[in-house]
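Exercise 7.
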Amino acid sequence: MNEYPDNELVNMVCENSEDARDVLYEKYGYIVDIIYNKYRRSAYILSVDLNELRQEALVGFSDAIVNYVDDKNASLATFITLCVERRVQKYLKKADTQKNKMLREAYSLEYSYDGDSLPLMDTIKDPTADPSLKVEDRENVLALKEKINDILSPMEKEVYELLINDFSYLDIASILSYSPKQIDNTIQRIRAKIKDII
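Solution. The predicted structure, written as tokens, is:
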């Protein structure tokens, strides 16, 4: 079956040939791996299950094979790459909804927010702790976060979020597909803006 050209294999897949589908996957499955690896870190940041991310990439691969038309100016490999990448990007964008952001930003009762102090649950239970001071501190932090959010451009916000989550500027450059120099310049602008409001 390997001797058939791609367009014939695609036609055979459309006629439900599992052998043709296997041949195409064997030939072009590396595209799924490349795109999956490209977006793994983004998925991790968004708390997306990596198995689900891979499934989405495979669905994009299947869609590409079924929808490929040979008379277009794109090779099958290019079309598969485009379909898989779009499918994965759409899935990650959906995962980055406001609901998921709220869940990720929710406070855990078992986490210590003040460095080496007690977990939040113990602080709430602690009769000697003044809850109004804790609430006031938290409100100040939230107000500062809101001010920072208001002054940053969309790109700066993306960089800032990754930066405060302990990603290096090289990692950020890789995740956002910018050059390290662009990310370094963006970080300098972010620092200058934050310095102005503190």
